[in-house]
Amino acid sequence: SRKEVSTIFESMHDLLAVTDLNGILQVTNPALNKLLELRKIQSSALIRINEVLNVAIEHPMMSGSEKSRVLEASYEVGEANKKRRITILWRRSLLLNDSGHLIQYVYTGTDYTSIRDTEEALRLRNQAIEVAVSGICIADANQWPMPMVYVNPAFEKMTGFSKHEVLGKTCSFLHGAETDLAKVELIRKSLNERTK
Hints:
Elements: H1 2-11, E1 15-19, E2 25-28, H2 30-38, H3 49-53, E3 68-77, E4 84-96, E5 102-111, H4 113-131, E6 137-139, E7 148-151, H5 153-159, H6 163-166, H7 181-195
Antiparallel strand pairs: 1-2, 1-5, 3-4, 4-5, 6-7
């Protein structure tokens, strides 16, 4: 029903815009209106989608009959003393009438700033683990008997085993004559209790 569609449209977290064939905004959802406000674009004026996307009117995203186009755009939003950069992945789709003729463009935008920030943090963390002077191995606690899935170069240097020799094995092959088996059993018991 029309009310259900309206509810979905109003509650979407993704940005949504519908334009005419000239790129003039016809419909926007609240999430996009918030971005327009943050970017100080006057919503009362006729707004071209290229102003929202931050690209020239000649940009391929603005025209053409290809079914889908994708664009990544970064924006500075907020007040002068609280500016932050956000990154939006925009997708353009075609809205066709019953005869198959193009009547409007539909633009959806997904804010993936936090995804990109998380990826950067993970990249930095991985880089730190790779260059650490301490030997590090990671075992998969979701598989029994917890096979190693990663070792850093320091682990290889310290043990003399290459990653190709140890990945998929458990850490038990590292036990030597001086290994305190009671402590190993305590660790094993603790890990078992945590995975249940």
